[in-house]
Structures are given as C-alpha cells and as structure tokens.
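Discussion board: Methods & Data

I've been asked by a reviewer to show the raw model output for two of the constructs in my manuscript, not just the figures. I'm not sure how much to include, so I'm pasting the format here to get opinions. Each protein appears as its amino acid sequence followed by a line of discrete structure tokens. Is this the kind of thing reviewers expect to see in a supplement, or should I convert it first? Here is construct A:
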Amino acid sequence: MNKTVSILLLFLMIGMLASQAFSQEPVCRIAAISSPYITTLPATELGERSWIAKTAPESLERTIALVNATQVDAMIVLGPLSWSGSKTDFERTKTFLDKIKAPTYLLPGEKDVSAGRESFDNILGNKSVEGQSLNINGVHLQFTSLTNTHTTEGQRTILQQMKTGLSRAKNAKAVLLFGGAEIRPPSEQNATSPIQAEYWRLINDNKVAARFTAVHAHSVRLEGQLPIWSIPSSGWSYTPKWPLAIINVYKKKIELDLVAGDGQPLQRLIIPNPVNAARMVPAASDPFGAPTFSEDLKLKPDLTFVQLSDSQFDDGTVPRYQSRFAMDEKMNKLAVTQVNRMKPAMVFMTGDLTNKNTKTEWETFNRIYTKLKPPFYPVPGNHDTLYERASLAREGSEKDDLFNSSIKNWQLADKLAGGKATDRTALFRHFTKKDPYYTVETNGCVFICLYTGVASIEKEQMAWFRQQLERTKNAKHVFVLGHYPVLKDFGGSVQGPEADEIMALLRQYKVAAYLAGHRHRYGYKIHNGTAHVLCDDLCWGEYCAYQIYHVFEDRIIACWKPLFRADLNRPLYERVVFPEPRYKSPSKR
C-alpha cells in the first residue's frame, strides 16, 4: 500500500466518526473541484494574480493524486477550467485531466467560453456535460450552464435544461444539481415570478437534494429547504486548503466532504436525501436558527462551547481602516444573537477584541458583548496589547497614524494605574475584568487560556502553564487557547523555542486541542495527537465565522459556523471530528 493511499484511508476513517450510521457503503461516490484556472501565461502577464502560475498547477496535481487514491465513480470539474480561455491553456489543462483515472466530466465556466469556445469544444468538448444529465449508479446528476445565470435569458436556458434532464430522473436514488441559478424561493412577502415558480417547482417535484456551485471561497447555504454547497476551487489562493470535494450518496443521507489530505480529517456536512428522507427544516423554523446545531444536540454532547475570535472593533479615527472595518459592529452583533440563541455552556474570545486598543473601541466591545448571555472568557491579542513605550518615545516613530492613539492609550493606562503603568495588558484588564491568562474548569473539561503577547510567552507564564497541565493531567479533556497559533503551518505563529516548548507540552499532556485566532481565516490540523484549530474573525478576512465545539467522551466535533450580513443567511455549519487523545476504550481501562 503506497503512502498516498494510506493517507486517504486515514482521513476517511477519521471522517467516519461524524456519522452514526456508516455501516453501509454509499451507492455513489463523486469527486469534484472547481476553478482550476490552469494557464500558460507567465507570472509577469498575470499581474496581481501572478501566484496562479505556481499554485494552480501544484494544487491540481495534489487534487489528482487524491482522486486517484480514492475509489470514486466519477470526477466532476466545474469551470472556469482555464485562466484566459486560450488554446494553449486548454491543451495544458487536458494534460492534467488525462491523468485522472475515474470517468471525468467538465462543466465550462465564463472564462472558458467567452473567449475560447471553439478551442474548448475542440480540445475538451468530449468531456463536457453542459446542459446534460448523467445517471451514475442510479443517481441523477443534472448539469446546467454556468454562464449568464443572472440574466432572464440565461435563467430560461437553465430552466429548459432542467426540464429536459429532470424528466429522466424518475426512480433515481438521488438527484443532484450542478450549476442552476441564484433564484430565491417564493415567499409570501413578494410576488412570485413565472421563472421563480417554475424553477422551484422543478427542485421540489424532482426531490433535488442539493445544488452545487463554483465559487472561489467555499460557502454552505440553505435556500428554503435546499442546501447550496460550493465546490472548492483548486486554483484560487483561499481554497487550496480543501483541494477536493467528495459527495457520498446514501439511501437516506448525503455526505458532503471537503478533503485536505495529508492525514487530516474531513470537513463534513450531512444533508438528507429527499428521495427517502424528510428535507431539512428552514432556518426560521428551527429553534436555534441552525438545523445542524439541532441535529448535534440530539447526540447529547457532554459539553457545548463556542470560540469567537478577532472581534477587532475599530473607532474609525484612522482613514485607512474605515472601509476594512465597516462591518465590525454588524457582524459581532450577529454573532452575539446567534450564540445567545444556541445557549452554549460557555464562550471564549481568542484575542484582538479591539483594533487600536482605544477607550472608544473598548466601550463598543463592552456595549455589544455585555449582551452575551453565556459565561464569557476573553484573552488578549496583540491588538489589545499596549505598544512598547520605548518605541513610542522615539522621534519620528514608525507607528505613523497610530502614534497618537498609542500615546493616549498609555495615558489612560497611567491614569488607571495611578502612576506610570508597566502592564501592557492594563486596558484589557480594566475593560474585561479578566487576567491576561487563567484557567477555567467545568464538566470534566479544562480550558487553559494563554496570553501570547506579540507572538511570545514570558518565562513566568510558561512555568504557570506547565503547572496547570500537570495539575489537570487526569482531567477528561484539556483545551489550550491563545490568540497566536503555535503550529507553524498556520503562519503568524508564536516563534522559536517558546513554540517548540508549547508543542512538546501539548503532546506530553495529551491536550485535546489548541484553539487560536489572529490569522483572519480558519483551518484545522492534527499534529502529534493534538487538534490545532484556527478560528476565523468577526470583522474582515477570509470569512466572518466562529467555531462551535461539541465535546464527547471519545471525540470533539468542531463546527465552522459562517456569518453573512443578515441573521439566518448562513444557518448550516460543517463539522470536523477529532479523536480525544486521553480517551481509553472500556476494553483498555
């Protein structure tokens, strides 16, 4: 058995933990990617997208290796396949696709057909399924055009493609739609157009289980009762963390998996197969506004808690920050509303509560987060840490437009201290009433909250950390939280010997997970038995999202919960399952 196959088997086994009923084999397993963006253009001609010349082919090679090491019934590639739509781009794309062992089907995107339709048809047209349907092991796959989806003419074309193809979906074991159009379900508040009515009639009458789209940044939505799941791009910078999607179709359910490979667990969404099971309830009908959360509570976890990160409120006094932080209050209010509805046992915030550490920002933070109902445990980040006085004392400080606010921050700290303050977390302490590092214990779980400063931990705190790990070595679960990650793979991490020491301690004491923020993106990695989770932010970045954790005796389920401008617009979440390293099965006790 080669190394790649071993890796695939490992992460598939880990992913199985997320499903209680995995005793049967899927009736169909489909691999999929989108937007590989293969190009022959040199980096110099790609301008600000020059990285595509390197990352796109590397990522596609990795994807193909994963596909070939997995037993799938088909491989679907949603466009754009090429970056420029040129003949040479399509020829190079073909050299990659010819390496895939599974039957491969292509759905071209805008870039593929706007400039190079003839070239696409000549080179890759034999694999195209645009406007067609396939039956794979009794599962009906319906493909519609990816172009002109927002125009009336384009939507009419899509409707005709759906009518023709879905007429063949009788007695299908499941029905999946690739492409489709952004048409909202009919509602009582607005008049229903003929196109809208017909589109959703086809969806409901033919029991379409999900719609799959091609976008750069992965998303999961619920329109009415229809899950809409974006296939990750193998060529775009945000998404190579998930170079492959796998759709597993069962009789009553469908598992939508994002695959990282390299021995890492899957990120999974489980949805009903409406051919044999009831559809998901709409978000507005779910008591928590999140149908997946309701499903998880039925499993009766020992503890449920939430991790927020990087609320990073900005006071609007520095022009270059104003547009970036335009949504900070809105998104944080949404997070508070959603978390209050879910009623977790506790909530943590892993740093960067403010942007410039000013009094106004802290007052905004407290105005919003005092409305959070569960017990709340924040830790400071680098933005909540006062600048070194020495750097501000130098004439012509490199802090530039942050200089004045930094001086005022120290003046406030001095006033609160009744003299010259020496604690760089003085404002955090004052406005949160918390120490910069501390331990919380509940229901067999220990949470050690670290202050990672500006990517560092002082010797006194490190000694305290060791003591806390030793003291709690017999606890069921131990979690460590800090603003900065310690796993170098995430970047922007605690550096040098300090990081190495923490990593060694995590392994020695079988810590379940190290939870961090800072990077304004999310990610998961298992390293030496410890799960490292990077929580997204609530102000700007890759997504606005937070993490929900369900703790069981033998495993932890980490859930990526996205936010999007309005409550209930992103009601579903995907899960990653980590084994609890301290768990011993009854036979080994």
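Construct B, same format:
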Amino acid sequence: MGRTRKKGDGYLRKVINFIIWFLMIPIILYLFLSSLFGTCVMVYTNIYTYYLTDIMPGMLLLLVLLVFLLLRHREKVMHDDRTVRKIFLLITGIWLAALLVFIFSTQMPPTADQRHVYEGARELLAGNYNRWLPGHYFYEYPFQSGIVLLYCPFLLLFQNSAYLAIACFNVCCWFLTICILTDLTGHWFGKKSARLVYLLLLAFLPIWGYCTFVYGTVPGLFFAMAGIWFAEKYGRTGKRRNIVGCCICMPLAIMWKSNFEIFLVGVCIMLLLYAIRKKVLFPLLAVVLITVCCLTVIQGVPRLMTQITGQASDQGMPTVAWVAMGMQEASTAPGWYNGYGKTVYESNGNHPEIVEKIATENLKKSIRNFQTNKEYAVSFFGKKIASIWNDPAFEGFTIVNTRDYVKSLSPWMKDILYDGGVENALLLVFFDVLHSIVLGGVVLHLLLNRKKLNFETAVAEIIFTGGFIFHIFWEAKCQYTVPYYILLFPYAAAGYTSVVDRLANLRKAGVRSKKEMLAKISRTGSGKLAIALAVLILLIAILPGKLLSDTVKLGGQEKDYVWYCLHKTQWQSPDYVRYGDNE
C-alpha cells in the first residue's frame, strides 16, 4: 500500500509541477516583469487606460529594502507574541475606522449594472417585473437574478439606506476574507507568513472601493474563500462536516457573482487530488455533492425567477458574445466593454440563437485577423493583459468616482479619487509599489520553495492560473481579475518569509559580511536562478524591440497622462457630476 501511494503521489506531483512550472511560473514572471517596467492607470472618465513607464531600478531597490527591513525586525516580531497581538489589534482598529469613514464619506447610490440589480430587488419586492420583460435588463442578463434575490433582505430591512447596509456588509465580508486567507497561510506556510499576509491584505486599499460597490465582488470572494477553507480543512482533518460548509458556501459565491465558478473548479480539483492521494471515495462524493448544489443554483435561480415574474429567464446573452467582445478593440483598452453584445442582441430581436451565430462568426473573424497580423495580435493581448493585471488600483478609484451623480463627494474625497489630486497621485505610487511587492514575493516563493511545492498549497495557484487563462479571452475588467490577484498574497508572504529565514540562518552560521553572504547565496540553486532572473531583467532593460515594447515594456504615455491630470479637472468644480442623471 505504501509503495502504491508513493507512486500515486509521484504522478500527482508531476501534474502539480506541470501546472506550476509550465503555466503559473511563466505567468507570474511575466506579470512581475511588467510591473517593474510599467504600470497602467484607468482615468476617472472610465474611457481610457494610460500605459506608463515605471522606474525599474527604484522598484527593485524597494523590494531589497523591504527584505532587509523584515530581516532587521525579525527577532522582535517573532519572539514577543503578546506585543505583536496588541500591535495587530491596534492596526486593525485604525484600519476598520478608516474604512468606515471612507464608506460613509462617499455614500453614493449604485449606477449601471449595480443600479439594475439594486433597483431590480426593490421592484421585485414591489411586484414590478418590467426589468424581466423581453428587451430589458434581466431578460438579457438572467445570471444576475441570483444577486437580486440576495439583496432583497437588505431592502426589506433598511429600505432607502439599503445601499449603505450593503457597503457595511461588504466590509465584514472583506475582513472575514482577510481572516480566512491569514488562517490558510498559517497552515500552509507558518505563523510568520500568516502575520505578513495579514498586513499585506490590510494594505491592499484598492478593495476599499469595492466595499462601497453594490455588487457581488466582495461577498462572492468571501463565500468562495470560505468554500476553499472548508475543503482545505476537510483535507487536513478528514472531518466530513466541513463538506457541508463547502456545499453551502460555493453556491452562494456563484449566486453573488457567476465568475466564481472557476473557484468551484479549483475546489473540485483539490478534493479529487485528495481522493487519489488517500485512496478514499468520500472526496469524490463530495465533488458530486458540491457540483450538484452549485448546478442547482445556476439552473434553479432562473427557473425560480420565471415562476415569480412570469417571464422567461433562461435565455439571455450567449456566452460567445462576451468572448467575441473580448477579442475586439474598445475605448478603455483592447478587449474591454464596447457595447458589442448588447448592440447585436437588441438589433436581432433578442434572439439568442441568431446572436450566437453572429458572435461566433465575429469571433472567427477576429481570430483570422490575429493569425494574419501577428504583430497586431501581440500588441492587442499585451495591452489587454496589462490593462487588467498591471493596473495596481484594479478599478478601485473608478468604481467609486463614476457613481458621482449626486454631488455627494467632499473636496478632500475628490482629491483622493480623481486623477490630478495630490492624494490620488500618492496613492497611485503606493499601489504601484505594493503591486510589485506582491508579485515579487510570489516570484521569491517559486524560486526558494520550488522543491517544497505540495498538494495542500496548490489550490489557489491552480485557481489563479485558470482565471488568468480564462480572462485572456473573456471581456476584460479589473473587477473580474482582482479576486484571482488576491489569491497571490499568501504566496507573496511565504516568499518574503523564506528569503528572510535563509538570510537569518546565514547570520546564525557566522556569515556576517555582505560579500561572503552573497557568495554563499550565489552557489545555491535558488541563488543561480536569482542571478538568471537579474540577467533577464537587465537584458529587457537594455534591449530595444517592438516585441518587448508591446508586452513587458508597455509605457511612454507619461506626458499624455500628466496633461490629462492638469487639464481634465472638471471634477474640481462643486457642481461636477459624473452623469447627468441616474443612468
């Protein structure tokens, strides 16, 4: 039995290593290099993304300084648990107070898709089903009906203040997500990494904008992470009651936002690996149970809405229309929303079959265009990927300021949210640095812990990799990719903890001089890989070429962005509103 299990483990390890080495490592390396050489900024009008050049040596210097800062304070932080708990409690209190001030300082009602689901819930409770009629919002997007049902209790309890109650609920969900990721990090990589990931997640301020957002991003992420937590706990303890928790959380995550189906796939893979490794059948049954629960929600909610409204809710926009749009140009950036699906759907009498044929043909046309014009294809996907993965604000500003149609923002809040504000510029620099810190930490983890990759810690890596590949083709939005980016934080913390531990061990071994320390590091496998990475960064920095400028070294629009900040200052007017009416 032992030999069989070992063979099975060896086979599975090869599968995991393939996913990590041949898929995730190239993706992470590409994103890290892109973050060193450039950054993206979506301006407050939400119709254009600027590609800016970063100061690569400065970014690397900050990463090195962070490592030595962590090394310097390692002993104090690690050996005085009581003091650390007090400090963390104080930091958490300040963080929570600041976030609540932010929530109540914005107080902006939802707009666009968010307004449709919010007002849809209100109208559903009132027996008004017009939004479900042919040609209206929920007829086109029936998958949004789940979130409508989830918002009904908020409107019943809080009436006109429901959007503020939802924002407070989002704050709770985000804090619980931080706690879950911290707990998972502790089990995967130890207490030191858990503490660091907690601080990094508190510092991820772009998510504050999502907390004001009447939408399913934050609560969906919480329930998806809770599902992962239950599945991981089952794998660690073998207690079957955790599968019940997973069966509850994963369907709720999908009800909040259908994109979390990719998280469901990751959980199922996690349980299948556990079943193969341990030679037990229950995880297979668990996969079936979780999948059935999720399919019940995916199929059942539209049918329930049909029963309630009397209108068909199982048609809507064909999936291929979103992919076709993701292969087209848009004003914001390549692959972003350009109204294609809505236009084709409405101009063809709301017939999904006709739209599917047209969208399929348009998709084939885009693919043929990419095949015949490879330089354009590289540029298109380089800019698309950068716009959704290399924007360190992840739409955290624009999802707030694009709802400013009620003149509710104070001057100091506008200075934070709008391009050209002093606080806005400082925050963008902070976000940019934090972005490179996170990606750099993941690179360190993959370099230093490459021989310790295991099944238990692979679930988030698999989900991230799947999400990255999926959104190469799907409609582009930072709103879609930010949940996958957050999954990287535990690995980033593990990377910095590993490098600090190794440097501390060298000190304990009597290595004091920097020259001797560098010499010892350079002789290790990890050191050689680090040197190879440094050479690669240097070559990218000095080599010219369109291929690099269309992929890793996107930038050059700094003057245009500065001009925008200096001249597009309508937001400074007391009478400025983003929209003329509540559209």
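Answer (T.O., handling editor elsewhere):
This is acceptable in a supplement if you add a one-line summary per construct. For B, something like: Residues 448 and 526 are 6 Å apart (CA to CA).
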